[in-house]
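Subject: Sanity check before I submit

Could someone independently write out the structure tokens for this chain? I want to compare against mine line by line before I put it in a report. The sequence has 394 residues.
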Amino acid sequence: MLTPNMNYSHLKSSYLFYNIAQKTKAYLAENPDKHLYRLGIGDVSLPLCDAVIKGLHTAADDQAKADTFNGYMPECGAPFLRTKVADYYRARGLSLEDDEVFISSGASDELGDILDIFDRSNRSLIIEPAYPAYVDANVMGGREIVHLPSSRDNGFLPLPDEITDAELIYICSPNNPTGAVFSKEQLKVWVDWANERGSVILFDAAYEAFIEDETLPHSIFEIEGARTCAIEICSLSKTAGFTGTRLGYTVIPKELVRNGMSFNDMWVRNRTTKTNGVSYIIQRAAAEVFTPEGQRQIHANIDIYKQNARTIMKALDELGIWYTGGKNAPYIWLECPSKMGSWEFFDLLLEKVQVIGTPGEGFGKCGEGFFRFSTFGSPEDTQEAARRLVSLLG
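---
Independent answer below. Compare away.
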């Protein structure tokens, strides 16, 4: 008799954003005349930049002509795009070979798939509050999870201590949900700790383009020693608005070896076995992101999201509410006022001022009492949401 993967029975009964969707759906059913100000789910609101759109059109036209048509693409990524991404790192002074870059359909896909190259006996350390998919991917795989709590006391940037122990370490910086960013000195502690134990850091750099303080690292590979203990996974979803277009990339250094096994070689074999690559049209469009014009245009959009962050932060400052994030990240993590629970605060904002955020409890136990705002909404809605917050809580 067939046996299903029973690890799925250990997953939480419902997903954070599903619960939010159900609550908002029920509210709108009772209040169809109300407009919701959505500062919750981190989907972008601005369209793709002109350079990317032109790239999409050119690539689509290529597919209409026999001499420029492309069928299956290389599973690990088209050479033209792998070079563009590697050049992006090299421009920051980082040493990277083209074939250390792997093109993917997005960071979320890769963060789950990458577990294939690690033995199931390896434990995963997850800093909480955490992006829920980190936890769920490991639960589905039957992997033991070591939860490392963070708090306001350490700025939601914990460091390993003498009792911390795991083979895989998830680090997201700038962080989702807290918006906190590790310094080079703090990441050096993690890199040294991983190298001492032979552990591997899975570094989620999906929000690196939002860093304003250039003393902060955009990449784990800015840290000495990282090439022997880290894999970096990034995405164009928030960098260039590819949430509906889907493209990301993963960097696996050739020095990353355990028990005589090269993780770079293993990932080549994994991708050539399990995927047929990302479409030519999407990869051509993505290449435009890394041109001078593409960089100028995507950062013009990012600047709009950063202005949204300043709008929300100004309101929170006026209200005297503690928060982190916002300046170097597209998320703002705040302490719920009056010691409210995070779902209690969600209901208050929805019912009283029609503002949608994300309850911190959904990101782990130590997120209780905190709340996340996303800065990806329209400027108009963000300004009105901030005004309503001040009116309600002031």
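---
OP: Matches mine. For the report I'm noting this point. The mean pLDDT is 96.
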